[in-house]
Specification:
Layout: E1 15-20, E2 25-34, H1 39-50, E3 57-68, H2 70-85, E4 89-93, H3 97-105
Parallel strand pairs: 2-3, 3-4
Antiparallel strand pairs: 1-2
Helix pairs in contact: 1-2
């Protein structure tokens, strides 16, 4: 507590939404924070969608993310590698400026075609 004002830690809840399109496209929309505590859940969820024979393209929509750390970024890189290894297309969509900045600072802006 500083200056008599209680400090409250606010943490965005992480959630995922999956949409399967009839064209073999799977869209995973991420909400909240993709960090060390949520990257495993995301990876597990995405892997389940990726291995389905009907999945031809995996799209990860980042538009509703509020935070990404290096673990979250690593999970996106690993997912892209797994998708390419399965001969599936991979795309990041609706990349927020803060994530674009992270990709730029880490030298990965071209890695995802940003």
């Amino acid at each position: 507590m500083m200056s008599g004002v209680p400090t409250v830690e606010r943490r965005q809840v992480f959630s995922l939404e999956l949409v399967r399109k009839g064209t073999g496209v799977v869209i995973i929309t991420l909400f909240g924070e993709l960090d060390i505590s949520t990257a495993g859940k995301f990876s597990e969820f995405a892997d389940e969608s990726l291995v389905l024979p009907s999945t031809q393209k995996l799209v990860v929509d980042l538009g509703a993310l509020t935070f990404v750390d290096c673990a979250g970024l690593g999970s996106l890189i690993a997912l892209q590698k797994r998708a390419l290894g399965e001969a599936k297309r991979f795309e990041l969509r609706a990349i927020p400026p803060r994530v674009t900045r992270l990709l730029d600072l880490s030298g990965l802006e071209n890695h995802f075609g940003v």
